[in-house]
Specification:
Enolase-like, domain 1; 41% helix; globular; 388 residues; ten-stranded mixed sheet; alpha/beta; TIM Barrel; three-stranded antiparallel sheet
Length: 388
């Protein structure tokens, strides 16, 4: 079996409301700066999909987490990786990952869009491997430690504390017992939000906080003391990601587990956080690291007795499916993120829906990633993006 053809599809989908809440009016630009997170967001759901076809007709699908400018990932795959990949055996995932990574290594491209593109290709290769073997990817990874993957609801995208409390209670009524709040608005306001939700949902629901890198070490320590009293189970992205020493200092001053990883793309980037004892919970995003590297990161964490909870934000069908395979196959994976509005859109581009019910993703055990992409819909979205 050899790789014969590679196609890429950069797409944008207009949702009912923007990710984490926001206006999606047509007269507004797609991209806008969120002051509270110091980051550019899109009003649309954007992603980059790759389709790899072999000489025997098998098709594998992959996806990069590409929340903005997804065409960049597609261009890297088509112009840089395609000449490397065509004619190669897709079963050689380790070799091909290394060739793609090495292709720009001596020029300093060790992260960012380049590795996002590797992730998309890598997921497609694993999809092909599974389909050729007639087995789900988790079997090829060594087996599933779990057929149902516990998840947590992410975000609570309401503009007020009362709205967030209502959403939390709604998810609790649906059987979800873990919720992460996207905060980072200041120590006092974050504690007010978490206190209100904790009081409403009671002790039977795990609560987490994502602070979006907004705190200094001193303020993060102040916040962490309040989080301890509320039994918050992890403190995600408390500080600017470059501050490894700050994370280590914070970790020494609180019993709340420190979580991070959505910005890191390789085991090399996770290594200093692990070695400096600056993290408790690793959150690699399979749409940014791929399946091959996600497993390496997971095993790297295991050697230091650390847990993994893969990040999953605006990745659509293949990205979610690949994340499920990894979360099933890693012994130290404890949870997988769940984005309700994104999940609904992801299923809209699949012929057979993914399943998440009562706080658990359910593996379907179909070959490969276990998803069947609706190519007609994908091509329509891609054409609209090209002509926008």
């Amino acid at each position: 079996m050899k790789i014969a053809h590679i196609e890429c599809f950069a797409i944008k989908i207009t949702p009912p409301y923007a990710y984490l809440g926001g206006d999606v009016s047509d007269d507004l630009p797609d991209y806008y700066y969120r002051n509270e997170y110091r980051c550019v967001y899109s009003r649309k759901m954007e992603t980059s999909l790759v389709k790899i076809t072999t000489d025997c007709g098998l098709v594998g699908w992959g996806e990069a987490l590409a929340p903005v400018t997804p065409h960049i990932v597609s261009e890297i795959i088509l112009n840089l990786f395609k000449p490397i990949l065509v004619g190669e055996n897709p079963n050689h995932t380790n070799v091909l990952w290394s060739r793609m990574y090495d292709s720009m290594r001596d020029r300093g491209y060790l992260s960012g869009f380049l590795v996002d593109a590797i992730a998309a290709v890598d997921c497609a290769l694993w999809d092909l491997r599974g389909k050729e073997a007639g087995k789900p990817v988790h079997e090829l990874l060594g087996g599933a430690y779990r057929q149902e993957i516990p998840c947590y609801v992410s975000g609570l995208p309401a503009p007020t504390i009362e709205g967030r409390v209502a959403l939390a209670l709604e998810w609790k009524s649906k059987g979800f017992r873990a919720i992460k709040m996207a905060l980072g608005y200041g120590v006092k306001e974050d504690l007010a939000n978490l206190s209100a939700v904790r009081e409403a949902v009671g002790d039977g629901v795990e609560l987490f906080i994502d602070a979006h890198w907004n705190y200094s070490v001193s303020d993060a320590v102040r916040l962490a003391k309040g989080l301890e009293a509320l039994d918050i189970r992890f403190f995600e992205a408390p500080l600017l990601v470059e501050d490894i020493a700050g994370h280590a200092e914070l970790r020494q001053k609180t019993s709340i587990p420190i979580a991070l990883g959505e910005t890191e793309r390789t085991r090399f980037e996770f290594r200093p956080f692990i070695e400096h004892r600056a993290v408790d919970l690793l959150q690699p995003d399979v749409g940014r690291v791929g399946i091959t590297e996600a497993m390496r990161i997971g095993f790297q964490a295991e050697t230091h007795h650390l847990q993994v909870a893969p990040h999953l934000s605006v990745g659509l069908g293949p990205c979610i499916a690949a994340s499920m395979q990894v979360a099933a196959a890693l012994p130290n994976a404890i949870k997988l993120e769940f984005q309700p509005s994104v999940f609904h859109i992801a299923n809209s581009i699949l012929n057979s829906p993914l399943n998440c019910d009562e706080g658990r993703y359910c593996l379907n055990n179909r070959p490969g990633l276990g998803v069947d992409v609706n190519e007609e819909i994908i091509k329509q979205y891609a054409a609209e993006y090209q002509h926008a």
